[in-house]
Design brief:
By secondary structure, this protein is of the alpha+beta class. It has helices spanning 15-25, 36-44, 54-59, 70-77, 80-95, 168-171, 192-200, 226-230, 259-272, 280-284, 301-308, 312-323, 335-368, 374-383, 388-391, 401-411, 422-429, and strands spanning 111-122, 131-134, 139-150, 155-163, 181-185, 204-208, 215-216, 235-242, 250-256, 288-293.
Length: 430
């Protein structure tokens, strides 16, 4: 552990504040050998390692000339109040308001929220709590991580770790929606009750087309045969209602893709539906990219597609979790240990995405015209965690030149002439 090193102090989480928080929650009664800051930093300095054991966390105290036994950490961190303490830190970080300056998407929407989920494999001993796939041959313990991110302010609106059986449809209505929001989701969240809820909140959405729903003509009320309408067409834009004429009037956009992409989609569809063969119509529809949106003003397919591609940011976050924070490499731990390990990883991710990335991106863009890769930054800070306190400074203060030079060198996108990177995509929409 780094001497006099507080990874969160720049955000107001001082040693005294964390101690008073821990006492209030009941995690510690009085400060003895280890205080609340010690426990938090032992966790944060180790959660990005492939194995997060009590032994490795105990060894973090060597630089502070403190002799800590792994049994002591196990006893303290297995208290339910330790989870309450870590959850409190996470929640307070989650709700700190950011000054996002000029880094806004100059659109009609107050927030643009992308939501997605990913599945992580867990040790077999956690199957009872996080049941996954089970058959005669084997059983797999999985957890489903749900994230909703406002890409305008780069802040999380939702984070949860649930059983694999809690699918996207079940999680859809847990997202808080406000007037002026744009919600961008995949078809897994697409249900009639949810689009009605979004419209009642005076918000809008973009979904991928879901074939199992009934699409009707708003004028006649007759069911629309989407595949028949698409026959011999490369493009389609129509108004539809889902279910019946009492539901909101929506826009359906469709554009034909090349056969190589269509074949790849059909292969993936067959792979994802092993239990039953996809229908002929559904396979044929893979030749088109189809969106459903409630945006009522004049908007083209290209504009809808550009907005939907903002989901890249959340996909990058998931990739960062799995690839660079070892999110998918959880060793054989108890449910208690699993929970605080995941929360610790998310705190590191919050620090990178919510408090560091935007400020660094703006500074580097002004200085060099280069674009900062979020994925590379996550990886770099994981390996250089000691510089995080330097980066969590007040906007406008000069960072040490060497830190900025290294981040530019190791975390910037390479120059691309034929295709744009994700950050450039956001700039086009701003």
């Amino acid at each position: 552990m780094y001497k006099n090193f507080n990874i969160l102090q720049k955000l107001g989480f001082t040693e005294d504040y964390l101690n008073s928080m821990a006492v209030e929650i009941g995690f510690i009664k009085r400060v003895r050998k280890l205080n609340a800051l010690d426990y938090l930093q032992a966790l944060l300095l180790n959660v990005s390692k492939p194995v997060v054991s009590y032994n490795t966390m105990a060894s973090s105290f060597i630089d502070l000339n403190k002799s800590v036994f792994k049994q002591s950490l196990h006893k303290a961190m297995n208290k339910s109040t330790f989870l309450d303490f870590i959850q409190r830190v996470f929640n307070e970080l989650l709700h700190i308001k950011l000054d996002i300056g000029n880094n806004k998407l100059k659109l009609k929407f107050d927030r643009i929220i992308v939501q997605d989920s990913t599945v992580i494999k867990l040790p077999q001993r956690l199957f009872k709590d996080f049941s996954g796939v089970k058959n005669k041959a084997k059983q797999v313990a999985n957890a489903r991580v749900q994230i909703a991110l406002d890409i305008r302010s780069n802040t999380f609106n939702l984070f949860s770790v649930d059983s694999y059986s809690k699918n996207d449809l079940s999680a859809a209505n847990e997202l808080d929606i406000a007037k002026g929001d744009l919600i961008i989701r995949d078809r897994g969240y697409f249900r009639l009750s949810e689009i009605i809820r979004i419209k009642e909140e005076q918000a809008d959405f973009i979904y991928r087309y879901r074939h199992s729903l009934k699409y009707c003509d708003p004028i006649t009320g007759d069911r629309i045969d989407i595949l028949k309408l698409l026959k011999n067409k490369s493009k389609l834009e129509i108004r539809v209602q889902i279910g019946d004429q009492t539901t909101p009037i929506l826009k359906l956009f469709a554009v034909k893709v090349n056969e190589q992409i269509a074949c790849k989609r059909r292969t993936q569809l067959r792979k994802n539906t092993k239990r039953h063969t996809p229908g002929k119509e559904l396979l044929q529809l893979q030749s088109w990219t189809i969106f459903i949106t409630s945006i009522d003003e004049e908007i083209s397919f290209e504009e809808v597609f550009d907005l939907y591609r903002l989901r890249w940011r959340i996909e990058i976050i998931f990739k960062g979790l799995k690839s660079h924070l070892n999110f998918g490499e959880i060793h054989n731990v108890s449910r208690q240990q699993l929970t605080f390990i995941l929360m610790g990883k998310m705190i590191l991710l919050l620090l990178t995405t919510q408090f560091i990335y935007n400020t660094l991106q703006n500074k580097i863009r002004r200085k060099t015209k280069k674009e900062l890769s979020l994925l590379k930054l996550i990886r770099y800070l994981k390996d250089n965690i000691q510089i995080i306190p330097e980066l969590l400074t007040i906007q406008g203060r000069k960072y040490p030149r060497k830190i900025i030079e290294n981040i530019i060198k190791y975390c910037s996108y390479e120059d691309r002439k034929k295709r744009i990177n994700h950050s450039q995509q956001l700039n086009i929409l701003s």
